[in-house]
Amino acid sequence: MVTEAQVWEALAEIPDPEIPVISLVDLGVVREVNVQDGQVRVDFTPTFLGCPALEVMHDAMADQIRALGAEPQINVCLDDSWSTDRITPAGREKLRASGFAPPAPREAAAPTLVQLQSNAHRCPYCGSTDTRLENIFGPTPCRSLRYCATCRQPFEQFKTI
Amino acid sequence: MNEQEQQLLLEIADDELILGWRDSEWTGIAPLLEEDVAFSSIAQNEIGHARALYELVARERGITADELAFDRAPEDYLCAQIVELRLLDWAQTIARHYLYEEADAIRLERLKQSTDSEIAGLAAKIDREEAYHRMHAQMWHERLQDEPRYVSALNELRPLLEQRGEHTSELGQLLEEMTMVRRSQPSGTKW
């Protein structure tokens, strides 16, 4: 019989399809795991609604659960329950080590342009805060582009959601 | 979910789908590389929002989100005329972006207060993403607000925000393009 701990472990092996250095569990998209009579229900809270990786994540989770010999049921939660605050401390460190600046904590109010343009964002390569916003948008919906004036390196900053 | 709520969600979903399609037309040809990236990303988000909204309505009606998005007759779409236009002028594109984001913010704020927790929850999630669209629109608005071409684009487009029910001739053509693969190779649109 499959246990919840085994399911969490199996899900922690699935890399994020676009940023494979972190796992789906590190990313915080698995909200709950429930095991009952060989049926495994996973509450999946998507990152950005337009993220093309969502289907890949969904199917990868179902495959992992089938590999454990259980029947998967992936329940997609279309609410505000995913936030970049759900990325685990280990996940944030893995992001930083691969050149993605981890997101700032979420605040009650939406982020503002002034915050984005401030130099409170640290370069993931050299640690300097002498960085500037290049583009609110980046290669995927979850990232912005910044430039570090100290080490003269452009880098990707996770948007706070 | 009552009929009125379904209509409101469909109205927003149709706006986001059609605008997302129009925004994606800048992919590869925007006047600046940064804007090529920005409009492509915004388009992707808008279509993602449309999809999530269609999912909620489709479940109520016992059909799929794709059927709602692609299989209705042009006259059954509830989008506003402002999102239908194929704008190839940058000042007009930014004017539409600014006007739309301002109006969308008011609508989302109301939707977040819905007594239906599913609707309120989805509206909150969409709004978190839209905050970045609004910043982008605001940035361009500040940059262009004294430009006569931009000001006249704002004045021309503003009334179209409220124009629903009657469609422009451009919507039919857009839907033809958008559903071409689905009509000719239905299996090609399955995940």
Would you write up a description of this structure?
The complex is a heterodimer of chains A (161) and B (191). By secondary structure, chain A is α/β, with parallel strands linked by helices. Chain A folds into 2 domains: 4-76, Fe-S cluster assembly (FSCA) (GMP Synthetase, Chain A, domain 3), CATH 3.30.300; 99-158, no CATH class. In chain A, 25% of the residues lie in helices and 24% in strands. The longest helix of chain A has 14 residues, at 54-67. Chain A starts with a helix and ends with a strand. Chain B is mainly alpha-helical and 191 residues long. Chain B has one domain: Ferritin, core subunit, four-helix bundle (Ferritin), CATH 1.20.1260. Chain B has 9 helices and no strands. Chain B is globular. The relative contact order of chain B is 0.14. The A-B interface holds A 48-52, 55, 78-83, 110-113, 116, 134-141, 145, 159, 161 and B 34, 37-38, 40-42, 44-49, 51-52, 55-56, 117-118, 121-122, 124-129, 131-132, 134-136, 138-139, 191.
List keywords for this structure.
heterodimer; A: 161 residues; alpha/beta; GMP Synthetase, Chain A, domain 3; 4-stranded mixed beta sheet; 3-stranded mixed beta sheet; 5 helices; 24% strand; elongated; B: 191 residues; mainly alpha; Ferritin; 9 helices; globular
Could you give the topology of this structure?
The complex is a heterodimer of chains A (161) and B (191).
Chain A: H1 4-11, H2 24-27, E1 30-36, E2 39-44, H3 54-67, E3 71-76, H4 89-97, E4 100-101, H5 113-117, E5 131-135, E6 143-148, E7 153-158
Parallel strand pairs in A: 2-3, 4-7
Antiparallel strand pairs in A: 1-2, 5-6, 6-7
Chain B: H1 3-24, H2 33-61, H3 65-70, H4 81-84, H5 90-111, H6 117-144, H7 148-157, H8 169-178, H9 180-184
Helix pairs in contact in B: 1-2, 2-6, 5-6, 5-7
Broad structural category of chain A:
alpha/beta
Shape of chain B: globular
Query: What is the gyration radius of chain A calculated from CA atoms?
Result: 17 Å
The CATH homologous superfamily of chain B is termed Ferritin, core subunit, four-helix bundle
Q: The biggest beta sheet of chain B, please? A: none
Cα Rg of chain B? 16 Å
Q: Roughly what is the average pLDDT of chain B, rounded to an integer?
A: 95
Greatest interface by residues involved = A-B, 28 and 34 residues
Can you summarize the main beta sheet of chain A? 4 strands, mixed
Which fold name is given in CATH as the topology of the largest domain in chain A?
Answer: GMP Synthetase, Chain A, domain 3
The number of distinct structural domains of chain B comes to 1
Q: Report helical residue fraction of chain B.
A: over 70%
H/E series of chain B: HHHHHHHHH
Tally of extended strands of chain A? 7
Question: Can you say what the CATH homologous superfamily of the largest domain in chain A is?
Answer: Fe-S cluster assembly (FSCA)
N- to C-terminal separation of chain A?
37 Å
